[in-house]
Amino acid sequence: METKQILETIRMIEEEKLDIRTITMGISLLDCIDSDGAKARTKIYDKMTRRAENLVKTGAAIEEEFGIPIIHKRISVTPISLIAGASQDENYTAFAQTLDDVAKSTGVNFVGGFSALVQKGYTTGDRKLIQSIPEALATTEFVCSSVNVGSTRSGINMDAIKQMGGIVKETAARTADQQGLGCAKLVIFANAVEDNPFMAGAFHGVGEEDCILNVGVSGPGVVKRALEKVKGQPFDVVSETVKKIAFKITRMGQLVGREASERLGVPFGIVDLSLAPTPAVGDSVAHILEEMGLESVGTHGTTAALALLNDAVKKGGVMACSHVGGLSGAFIPVSEDAGMIDAVNRGALNLEKLEAMTAVCSVGLDMIAVPGDTPAETIAAMIADEAAIGVINNKTTAVRVIPAPGKAVGETVEFGGLLGHAPVMAVNRHKSADFINRGGRIPAPIHSFKN
Amino acid sequence: MKAILTVIGKDNVGIIAGVSSKLAELNVNILDVSQTIMDGYFTMMMVLDLEKASTSFAEIKASLSEKGTVLGVQIKIQREEIFTSMHSL
């Protein structure tokens, strides 16, 4: 081992904020289904607390021994619409409260999976779950919810999108005393993935094992620092530099995932190779793009810079671990990234540019505050645009917007912690209502017929 | 279990002696040592064997960090795998 390499690793962790963002335990709840809702919830609580009993403790022990921070320990579960659907309950909030109780007793930071997959249509369970979302998110602390409204194979469910516009607004209203915080825990997806360890969109797909461990890495600061050393050099060099550093970051994820999986006796699923920013200084994806030569993120060239970054991260990471999965790419949440917040405040970054960026990043319009009086149909139309980008381009896209109650453009919404703070951004004031009110389904694109 | 110990701080009398006597006390074997002055800072690295250590990793870590405070340097101990996995295939 060379001194230089040892010091490099230590510097990456201490100065450049390299960390493991999350170890997420995926737990299948399919064997907890019961026609009696209360019985199902007892089974859910028992299974989850048994499986995740040592998750937090093990994570802390690994942090201690390896000296690498593991920021979050989380649980994802089978979409609750599938589990609760067998019960006679009309409102599924009680299921969310059970998940919240599990989070409290196991000490995990979030539980994801208060979810429904309605890309083609609704089951009764899906319908009840979606209607319960505002109340569920207002009455729980640690539960995250997601709804998949489109996929490349099945097209876009415009009825679901119309409904979700209203659900987002209602969720904001129910959590108005916390500036619409509930919406920060609600993601609307197209092409949702079944092994994503990141919140708010994590759920445990039905094709997964009974219990599995997925890891999400992070480390935008490390990439930024590496690029500082190749200032002015051509993009071939930029891409190579990002690949090399992504390899190193991913190796950490692989090591921690394998170690945690051995100690917990749970199979190791995937490493999600994502660059996930935090509001902390030196932990920003926007600053990486600016390091490539943009005066501010959001200016012309941003989409190209992000495309290169997203691709190079994947290429570097793929060889560093046994199985890659989840979302894998660069995240561009606004409130969680100091550089994005600054760009919005200086007028360099708007919603339209962010939408373009989502065509080449790993997710979508993420953690964006919009005026509280934004109509539900406008939010639905934003979701439809994102879904279209995802469905046509064979990628995951998502919308996590917060119509901040009582706030207007220029004001700021404070969430605190990893969720950060968001300047309220302007939306297009022209109406999309007649478009959204058509309902129905947008058919699957021609390139989905691959058989 | 192997671990890497790093000591970084202002050069002073007795750092190596202080660290190695603490390790001996904990029954930790030193497999390799390298020491240099980088940018004016005393920088020492040790490869340790914790196989026969008299106490747990957490306690070794805590008592070394305490020793570091006394010596005016920063002492870290991390399992070797974090470095090998990052820098080698």
TrEMBL record, chain A:
<protein>
    <recommendedName>
        <fullName>UPF0210 protein C0674_14115</fullName>
    </recommendedName>
</protein>
<comment type="subunit">
    <text>Homodimer.</text>
</comment>
<dbReference type="InterPro" id="IPR007841">
    <property type="entry name" value="UPF0210"/>
</dbReference>
<comment type="similarity">
    <text>Belongs to the UPF0210 family.</text>
</comment>
<dbReference type="Pfam" id="PF05167">
    <property type="entry name" value="DUF711"/>
</dbReference>
TrEMBL record, chain B:
<feature type="domain" description="ACT">
    <location>
        <begin position="4"/>
        <end position="78"/>
    </location>
</feature>
<dbReference type="InterPro" id="IPR050990">
    <property type="entry name" value="UPF0237/GcvR_regulator"/>
</dbReference>
<dbReference type="InterPro" id="IPR002912">
    <property type="entry name" value="ACT_dom"/>
</dbReference>
<protein>
    <recommendedName>
        <fullName>UPF0237 protein C0674_14120</fullName>
    </recommendedName>
</protein>
<dbReference type="InterPro" id="IPR045865">
    <property type="entry name" value="ACT-like_dom_sf"/>
</dbReference>
<dbReference type="InterPro" id="IPR022986">
    <property type="entry name" value="UPF0237_ACT"/>
</dbReference>
<comment type="similarity">
    <text>Belongs to the UPF0237 family.</text>
</comment>
<dbReference type="Pfam" id="PF13740">
    <property type="entry name" value="ACT_6"/>
</dbReference>
